[in-house]
Amino acid sequence: ELANRMSERVADVVKALMQNGIMATQNQTIDADTAELIIEEFGHEVTRVSDADVEDVIDSVQDADEDLKPRPPVITIMGHVDHGKTSLLDAIRNAKVVAGEAGGITQHIGAYQVEQDGKKLTFLDTPGHAAFTSMRSRGAQVTDIVVLVVAADDAVMPQTVEAIAHAKAANVPMIVAINKIDRPAANPDKVRTDLLQHEVIVEKMSGDVQDVEVSAINGTGLEELLEAISLQAEILELKANPERAAQGAVIEAKLDVGRGPVATVLVQNGTLRQGDIFVVGEQWGKVRAMENDQGKRVAEAGPSVPVEVLGLNGTPEAGDVLNVVETEAQAREIAEYREKAAKDKRAAAGAATTLDQLLAKAKADENVAELPILVKADVQGSAEAIVQAMEKIGNDEVRVRVLHSGVGAITETDVGLAEASGAPIMGFNVRANAPARNSANQKGVEIRYYSVIYDLVDDVKAAASGLLGAEI
Ligand code: GDP
Asked: What is the ipTM of this complex?
């Protein structure tokens, strides 16, 4: 790499290193001071690149007021499991798919747009708190409005409280959708009074949080809910500059067998165009093609528009920020720099508790045939499914022990528990918040992220069977 950058022959660089007493091979990493010495010996000029230099390529200039144009609001639906998040998202989509597309095949790309009174609204179609929390923990704030769904026959439940906490922490305004109003046992006033205890005072209780009674099943109140959202959006005066280089956030990403890595990107500022070169987290790429939420090819996507992007060199993670840059060389350099920085950080974690190390430890100690793990998932259902799958792994000689399973982002408390037990943390559709990430880095606790249960189960199976050196 060094030879390459100086346009010198590798053999000459290796020779120069040897003459300086460093027996390096072609692929060995040398420290910055040595590199500097060699560069000077070859008569080249040294420019030390810092974090800031690399990242500076990204256009972070503030937009002038006159360049800012109104943009659609981005809405996330949150609430307790089974209170109707998915049903409500489906009901809104079915009732309001952007004009002309009704009846068309809608594609799940993690977000969709509907039209209300000629204005667009963007819904993040990833129910659960995962999207919201994971995005925030990775530095992307994509949600403008939270719709808090509370079932009228169940009132405020633990994840309702959690959702309120998330919305408040992110400083995002809330609208309460009191769902299942069609149910005979529906008691919307109980929802309203319950919410008071959590400092959510709805309009009906003379507060300023809008509340709407809805039924995702028969469509009651949907129109009112969309109107409430539009009103809230107007108050927020959301704006972006469609004329600049695009910046966005990854909503979902996967490796598609036929198409390679694909990511659903919500454009947050600027306009993303076919052919644009970008860096996204530790990956980079060139927009080969884009599809909207209707599965239609589009050549460009402006602010608040979700698009599926093809042309990535690797799979980014949900919450990664995308920035368009000018050249491929810049994109590659930033991505490589970030990747290396992340690797160094992991390496610095030292005596890490990785699955592999656990395995080695277990092999050394014949009595240990237990693989401890911690599970955090986006919804209770997933957590339960994972725990059940974990219990099935193992036999007389080895078993997986789930120390703790819970719902929500991975926190410092989880990291503490994992460290104490020498367990890795398996996150399913959730991410670690910043303090937890730092703490895990310091303590050397491994956190693994999954979005497919089978992948998680397979990894644990592999580790467990590794303990025995046999198939399980
Ligand atoms: P989520 O876990 O919050 O996404 O909840 P779902 O959308 O999966 O809904 C949970 C259950 O409640 C499903 O069986 C839905 O059919 C039902 N449900 C959702 N909304 C309503 C509603 O407005 N009325 C009635 N009666 N049932 C509903």
From this structure: 0.99
